[in-house]
Amino acid sequence: MAEYKPTIKAPGKNGDIIFSALVRLAALITLLLLGGIIVSLIFASWPSMQKFGFAFLWTKEWDAPAEQFGALVPIYGTVVTSLIALIIAVPVSFGIALFLTELAPNWLKRPLGIAIELLAAIPSIVYGMWGLFVFAPLFAEYFQTPVGEVLSGIPIVGELFSGPAFGIGILAAGVILAIMIIPYIAAVMRDVFEQTPVMMKESAYGIGCTTWEVIWRIVLPFTKNGVIGGVMLGLGRALGETMAVTFIIGNTYQLDSA
């Protein structure tokens, strides 16, 4: 009697088709949401555009009774504080991510990583109040005033240190923003650095490369796209922040480099 061998049917392609359709739908929904935001902004701002045109983008006067509305001051403050925050946060986040992935002992990696991520959970208003009442006075006394005396003759840079004596201003707001976005950038950089194949790093160490050479020639080229993504995430966070900057920058509608 011949032995019975059950036949196993090859899996169909219906699952792949359904999965592909769901993924495409998710991507389409994201694009539709982005397009909806753009259309909504254009529709809501169209009456203002018809009356004032694009001139409000480079006009600094804001006088509601006289119907003068200039957006230059908030645009300037947003851009400058965000740039200051990136200049400070990117190198610090880079160092934190490298320490966690390449240098930190195993017993320290997880607790320190969790502590850094917890900083992202602090509300922006807490950062703002801490910056106004604690950070700004110390910043003015121990950094802004003495460093400003040394750098006062340098164009642009010296003007950043010429803010009010009690510490509030664009420079202090940029530093607070940097503290706020460091957890985001550092977390992304750490995750992408961990994706570097261990074999590539061990091979580099095996031929005599130093830690810096491994980081510069192996880790960074392999993860540069993820690093750029982390920086863009931090920039988006900085550009969208309002409460902490409002506290630190003085809540005044005045175009000033400090």
Automatic annotation (TrEMBL):
> Which region is the signal sequence?
none
* Stored InterPro entries: MetI-like, MetI-like_sf, Phosphate_PstC, Phosphate_Transport_Permease
Residue ranges crossing the lipid bilayer per the database entry: 21-46, 75-100, 112-140, 160-186
Tell me, what does this protein do in biology?
Part of the binding-protein-dependent transport system for phosphate; probably responsible for the translocation of the substrate across the membrane.
Please state what the protein is called. Phosphate transport system permease protein
What does the entry give for GO biological process? phosphate ion transport
Per UniProt, what is the name of the gene that codes for the protein in this document?
A: pstC
Location of this chain's protein in the cell: Cell inner membrane; Cell membrane
Per the similarity annotation, which family is this? Belongs to the binding-protein-dependent transport system permease family. CysTW subfamily.
The UniProt entry, under Pfam families, shows: BPD_transp_1
Recorded GO CC terms = plasma membrane
- Native organism is Serratia marcescens
Q: Which UniProt keywords apply?
A: Cell inner membrane, Cell membrane, Membrane, Phosphate transport, Transmembrane, Transmembrane helix, Transport
Q: How does it sit in the membrane?
A: Multi-pass membrane protein
Q: Which GO terms describe its molecular function?
A: phosphate transmembrane transporter activity
| Chief location | membrane
State if Transport is listed as a keyword.
Answer: yes
Q: Which residues form the ABC transmembrane type-1 domain?
A: 75-258
